[in-house]
Amino acid sequence: MAHIARIDIGGPVGSGKSMLIERIVPMLAEKGYSVSIISNDVISKEDADRMRTNLATKRELLPENLVIGLATGGCPHTAIREDPSMNLSVIEEIESKHPELDLIIIESGGDNITTTFSPILADYFIYIIDVADRDKYPRKRGLGIESCDLLVINKIDLAIMVGADLDIELILKQIIL
Ligand SMILES: Nc1nc2c(ncn2[C@@H]2O[C@H](COP(=O)(O)OP(=O)(O)O)[C@@H](O)[C@H]2O)c(=O)[nH]1
Ligand SMILES: [Mg+2]
Question: Rounded to the nearest whole angstrom, what is the distance from the C-alpha of residue 123 to the centroid of ligand 2?
Fold first, then answer.
């Protein structure tokens, strides 16, 4: 079976994981890439329901069968790291039914700063934090921030209101040193 590339997105509750996906999927579509989304949530499938509609145009973002919601229960990281079997079986189904796809985007349930994905699930790992806690996350670091392929610092429009310093050199020093 064809292996479809997997980009996994993790980060604390409300940091903007779903919003990032909603924004990048139309951009990817414009460039001709076909995508499926798996959205992990602890209790509901609300994110997946929301992500079927493009926020800007209010039209369908992706066909319903390409946006899969998983209500995983328990700790969010369990389903993406310790026991990724639910996600793997959905991926298997997507790969057999839609081998033409270019990418599967997997959203983690909102979790803490030690979140990482099982390497079986992730070809690439994006970790997203927002500025609401000022420099708390870069200062505390944690496995997500330290091991991701791409760190997104989101909600920079709110930085001025919470007094978050967006000096990238400062942020990098906190993460790397
Ligand atoms: N001000 C602001 N709000 C944002 C931004 N990105 C996302 N949000 C809002 O933050 C809230 C949580 O976003 P969501 O994508 O659901 O977070 P998730 O829990 O990580 O999936 C929503 O109300 C979004 O509209 C941003 O860049 N700026
Ligand atoms: Mg979400």
Answer: 20
Instruction: Give, for ligand 1, the residue of 15, 17, 19 to mutate: max count of ligand atoms closer than 8 Å to Cβ.
Output: 19
Distance CA 126, CA 116 (A): 10
CB within 8 Å of 169: residues ≥ 6 apart: none
Write the DSSP string, 49-100: HHHTB-TTT-SBSS-GGGEEEEE--S-HHIIIII-THHHHHHHHHHHHH-TT
Domain edges within the chain: 5-128
CA of 63 to the centre of ligand 2 (A): 18
In this prediction, residue 177 carries a pLDDT of: 63
For the full predicted model, state whether its pTM sits above 0.70.
yes
19 in contact with ligand 1, CB cutoff 6 A: yes
pLDDT digits (tens, 9 = 90+) for 138-150: 888 889 999 999 9
99 CB within 6 A, ligand 1 = no
What architecture is domain 5-128?
3-Layer(aba) Sandwich (3.40)
Does residue 12 sit in helix, strand or coil? coil
Residue 128 CA: nearest ligand 1 atom is 20
Cα 154 from Cα 158, distance rounded (Å): 9
* Distance of alpha carbon 22 from alpha carbon 116, whole angstroms: 22
